[in-house]
Amino acid sequence: MSAPAFTLTAAPRPLLFAGFMTDDTHALAIGLRQRDPDLLDRLIEQYQQRLYRYLLFLTGNPSLAEDLFQETWIRVLERGNQYNGKSKFESWLFAIARNLVIDASRRKRISSLEDLGDPESNTPYDPPDERAGSVLQLMLSRENEQSVQLSLLKIPPYYREVLLLRFSEELGLEEIAAVLTAPISTVKSRLYRGLAALKTVMTEGAA
Amino acid sequence: MNENLHERAQRLLAESVVEGLRPADETWLREHLAECLECGHGAAATQKALRALRAVPVNVPQDLAARTQLRVRLRAQETSTAASGSFWLWVVTAASWLLGVFSAPLVWRGFAWLGANFGLPKLAIEMGFVLWWAVPALVAVAAVIHQRSLSTGTKGI
User: Fold this and answer.
1) A130 occurs within a structural domain
2) What pLDDT, in 10s, does the model give residues B112-157?
3) Is ipTM > 0.90 here?
4) Is the dihedral of CA A40, A41, A43, A49 positive or negative?
5) How many independent structural domains does chain A possess?
6) What is each CA distance from A184 to A21, B18, B45, B50, in whole angstroms?
7) A2, A7, A8, best to mutate vs chain B, most B CBs in 10 Å
């Protein structure tokens, strides 16, 4: 008996991001430096879905994700002069959002984010509480494969984060490393472990 | 089939989605997956999970973008006003320091004349000179710092 037909799907985008300044990112950097309000309006529109999804999956809390969404754009306004246009805008944006999530977790001790930056701490991971999970479920479209989405919530946030950045946001390894301010080797290791963890929780869910 | 072959297939499968594979490894993996039912199912499950991950849909709250745009515009206005006020404060501070430095010889002579004619002690003359020279500049610096603390306070609201 032969195995089901399988097509190897290569990584969706170039794996390593070569740091170069395109016309687009250069124009973006200038606009951000000038605090161009129309540019910011367009960026907020353009990235609302991706940024909100990233924040929602990191925090598991829609109301906190909303607050952090707004804070992220305020930071973009205030620190626009720090974006040099040499990297992708979304890497810079997600890095800002991530730092705000870490700050919020320090202030409020959000259980699901306590070890966002330290997966090697050997602290056992507690999945988000049921209330947060159920609120998040309501935010997710019902038509999609909910089992995968719910499985995502069961894996530690530091793995969930890299899986989202790699396979949902389609960032390259170098771009993810920039978001996490971590070496590429760390990103790879978290991706491998995250994939294994996702597989495990999906298998458990299916059983 | 050799257990090591399955392990290799699993490893290459993970590598294919994380880092990409060399052509030789990719060919080997294709062949293995075509032959091995178990690994083929595993690969299909991985692909299904990744497809779902790529398509995780989230309903963004209504008006979130509009509310954010409004907040960002208000913040931009605040910072623009603060920046213009701060520019003039810095100009005044710089002018005060420059005036202090360049007028020092003249002021020193004035204080020396006062001391000579009114018999003031040397320490009082020196203190008076230092205060005359430093106080305006220090007041300007204090105003700048005060304005900064006010703008930081507004930011936190």
Assistant:
1) yes
2) 788 788 887 888 888 887 887 777 777 777 877 776 676 655 444 3
3) no
4) positive
5) 1
6) 21, 11, 26, 21
7) A8
